[in-house]
């Protein structure tokens, strides 16, 4: 059974869609897909912002701009043949700067300065597991709250597990807001008075492993950050709810390879089980066979057999080579079709858009428009 079609150009032009999240395993073309969708939205007359969390700078390269940073930057578009009212803005997440801005926005200047200078904070703001994903959601929430953009396209972080994007905000907020860390790092309060002797022994053991200075820095960080602990959980909850709203759509991106499709299938199942609005699957870099030449093998065999003379032999060799290339591509297309059918059997109602591989890499907005055209229905 063929899957229902997914018209991505119609999706980004839909005024009810305000947030579009591209997700999937690494190396499947999420960044390029996100950029192409944002270009299509701008061409449809919308003010679109694309946010990438990919530090490899592929988004800046594909948009033809030198650098992107934590502040949205307008990308100039050649609007020939497009709605002239549309705009395209792009930015690349700076995890630490976003964390710093959040601290500054929810603390006094004096307290913020102490937090930002704390060594323990400096460590977790750049390298703690889940920080990048949490700050991506923080930046998304900030952009959505401004109301300046008709559509925000989010390119999710490349990760070993695509579920990290959904889990990390709750995981990090639970760590920051957890009672255990405060109990361990702020002795002398509440129940810690009762178990003070045990805590002292524990603290000595910890100091012997990680060092007294680090434990002291962590304790100071918790004291400084105490007023913000509760806010982490609430902010994570509100951002998670933003992802579940009707105005949000998730697009899972994969390539016609077993590992990528397994990850995509698992992610689609998880999104639906969490009540996330899943728009469909983008199957990148496919190799369809033109229906007009589907019967080429039989016709070519007859033609080659009729080329007998020495003068015609080069033409026969050329035709044979073309036939071999076509046969190889037809075999690849058939294999991709079988893999897609397995995904469709597991998710029969999941819309799919197959995007043929481009002959060259994407380098500028014109290339992105070509890619966006291939994402349309028909």
Automatic annotation (TrEMBL):
InterPro entries: ArsA/GET3_ATPase-like, ATPase_ArsA/GET3, P-loop_NTPase
SUPFAM superfamilies: P-loop containing nucleoside triphosphate hydrolases
PANTHER family recorded: ANION TRANSPORTER ATPASE-RELATED, ARSENICAL PUMP-DRIVING ATPASE ARSENITE-TRANSLOCATING ATPASE
Source organism (scientific name): Nakamurella aerolata
Protein name in the entry: ArsA family ATPase
Classification of source organism: Bacteria, Bacillati, Actinomycetota, Actinomycetes, Nakamurellales
GO MF entries: ATP binding; ATP hydrolysis activity
ArsA/GET3 Anion-transporting ATPase-like domain boundaries: 18-288
Pfam families, per the entry: ArsA_ATPase
């Amino acid at each position: 059974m063929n899957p229902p079609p997914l018209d991505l150009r119609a999706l980004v032009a839909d005024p009810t869609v305000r947030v579009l999240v591209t997700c999937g395993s690494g190396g499947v073309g999420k960044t390029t897909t996100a950029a192409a969708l944002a270009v299509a939205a701008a061409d449809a007359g919308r003010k679109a912002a694309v946010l990438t969390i990919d530090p490899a700078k592929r988004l800046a390269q594909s948009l033809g701009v030198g650098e992107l940073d934590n502040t949205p930057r307008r990308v100039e578009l050649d609007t020939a043949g497009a709605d002239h009212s549309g705009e395209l803005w792009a930015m690349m997440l700076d995890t630490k700067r976003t964390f710093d801005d959040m601290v500054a926005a929810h603390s006094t200047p004096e307290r913020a300065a102490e937090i930002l200078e704390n060594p323990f904070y400096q460590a977790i703001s750049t390298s703690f597991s889940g920080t990048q994903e949490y700050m991506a959601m923080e930046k998304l929430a900030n952009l959505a709250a401004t109301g300046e953009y008709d559509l925000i396209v989010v390119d999710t972080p490349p990760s070993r597990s695509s579920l990290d994007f959904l889990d990390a905000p709750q995981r990090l907020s639970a760590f920051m807001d957890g009672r255990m860390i405060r109990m361990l790092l702020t002795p002398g309060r509440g129940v810690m008075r009762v178990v003070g002797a045990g805590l002292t022994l524990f603290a000595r053991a910890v100091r012997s492993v990680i060092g007294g200075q680090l434990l002291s820095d962590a304790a100071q960080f918790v004291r400084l950050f105490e007023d913000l602990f509760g806010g982490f959980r609430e902010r994570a909850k509100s951002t998670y709810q933003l992802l579940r709203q009707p105005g949000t759509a998730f697009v899972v991106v994969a390539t016609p390879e077993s590992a990528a499709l397994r990850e995509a299938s698992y992610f689609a199942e998880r999104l639906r089980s969490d009540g996330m609005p899943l728009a469909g699957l983008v199957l990148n870099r496919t190799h369809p066979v033109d229906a007009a030449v589907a019967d080429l093998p039989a016709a070519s065999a007859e033609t080659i057999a009729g080329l007998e003379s020495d003068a015609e032999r080069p033409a026969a060799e050329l035709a044979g080579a073309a036939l071999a290339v076509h046969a190889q591509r037809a075999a690849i297309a058939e294999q991709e079709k079988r893999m897609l059918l397995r995904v469709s059997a597991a998710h029969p109602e999941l819309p799919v858009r197959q995007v043929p591989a481009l002959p060259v890499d994407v380098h500028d907005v014109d290339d992105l428009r070509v890619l966006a055209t291939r994402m349309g229905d028909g």
